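Subject: Sanity check before I submit

Could someone independently write out the structure tokens for this chain? I want to compare against mine line by line before I put it in a report. The sequence has 297 residues.
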Amino acid sequence: MPLLVCEADARNIVLPAAHELEAIIDRALAEDLGGGDVTTSSLIPPHIRAGARFVVREPGVLAGVDVAMAVMRRVDPSLETTARLLDGDRLEGGETVATVAGPMASILMAERTALNFLQRMSGIASLTATFARAIEGTGATIVDTRKTAPGLRALDKYAVAIGGGRNHRRNLADGVLIKDNHIAALQAEGFTLAQVIRRARSKAPHTVKIEVEVESVEEARVAVEAGADIVMLDNMSVNDMRQAVKLAKGKSLVEASGGVKLENVRQIAETGVDLISVGALTHSVRALDIALDYGKL
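---
Independent answer below. Compare away.
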């Protein structure tokens, strides 16, 4: 059986390429298993077989079920894995999302790593879905950031997409994002904000968009007039956001960033911004409560 059989492909949201996913899983297993599972090796004879169910304990959105099953098969290709639900499915709590059967020792060795992926990814998808529901009907879109767990960005961003968000840059090569420190460094050399933006436009590949972070309505005006494709409003008030949206209309996309919470995201969306970036989707996520219960399948 192949390492990865991804059911989420049907939703046009795909996991990382097989070789990338395999590398992520292998690093996680090496971290957890180390020189071997001395507890299981001491207690569980190889001939004992078992079945187990991945059971969700609370409402949420499922993500990472195929990754968890891939972990199981990576530890022992003889394990029989079945995803009962698909990534993106809404969970009420109590459902069996997947099953695994085979040598009990193998299941025990893979259990924690499989759950770590499944719980984190489902937590990200669930939080993203909550933000997305909060702004329904406004025309704005929730996007993630690069504030991901080191080494897990591909899976973190996949989970955001499963939850109904969209991905911002995956890495520094994906687009030009001129932030305050870039601006400060060049202003010290005598550049104006408009000149910084035009410099980026002249030197960056023509295939990438130019986004610039601004902190005032006046800076937003300069960015729009200088030809920025996207203007990021950093920690601006709702009133200032509305003004920035008006002056950018039809010229630049507008992204709100900084201080975004569930309590204020609707108000931000109603200013007319196109994008709302939320770092908390991946840097402060709470894992969804999912357990592996042993017993008759």
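---
OP: Matches mine. For the report I'm noting this point. The mean pLDDT is 94.
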